[in-house]
Fold this sequence. Notes:
alpha+beta
Amino acid sequence: MFGFKKKTEEKSAPDLNKVLDTLRKNEISVTTRKAKNKGSVYRSKFGGKPAVPAGFDWPRFESENYDGEKANRPLSFLCQINLEEICAYDKDKMLPEKGLLLFFYEQESMCWGFDPGDAGCSRVYYFEDISQLAQADLPDDMNGEYKVKEYDLSFCAKDSYPSFEELDCHSDLDCDWEEYDEAVEERGYDLDFECHKLLGYADLIQSEMLTECERTTRGLYCGDHQSYIDTAEDVEEDINKAATDWILLFQMASVEDDDYELMFGDLGNLYFYIRKQDLKERKFDKTWLVLQCG
Length: 294
């Protein structure tokens, strides 16, 4: 939340467009549409009921809500991605070619991810053999308010560029935000458009989150500026270096239609991050969640 990268000695300014060429990534943009009455239980979707193995232990998280009520609550099922459906859009071949990815988040306590104690408020599962899966009912004690309405999904591949606030994590480019945003927009990428996506760069609402992921997973609190001041300089430098290992796995924005609204904070986004090596090794249980809103 308050992370920053200390400036090193000045170097000759690199060419902006050449830097953007090196920064360009592929993202898989996700669009929602009204769910079919009889779709496959293995299809990609938001909400509804997930397809899981027999004996699946529904994830739960013990925490306080905003009223200070502590309880062990079931996580909401957010999203199911059939990886065969998106394989053609994964141009960098970063995800498995088959199986299901499932995303969960505990909505009532609505953790932000800047506290190491938020570990467990979200979960990601990967099931490679979908033939062993069956649709599961939601827990009986899940508050109806936190049951996510079912939507079908469609996908497309797009170029992706980092927001200016995240630029220091990827490059030593020295330019102002207006110059940077203009150059990115000339490439057809709208930095102000927040959407659902897999991979690519996050659409930031506040500050960059890579250092936040690294800090919190080291057990460091990120909810106030003092926690950064108290961090030793050599530790801070190591955190900034290691932060570049984190990449966006999934971003989920608000969802709404005429009779339903799913919102995280005040028109916020959920971001599921993962280290590059953990993604390569399919360790999806190593993700870290961050919530940002206006």
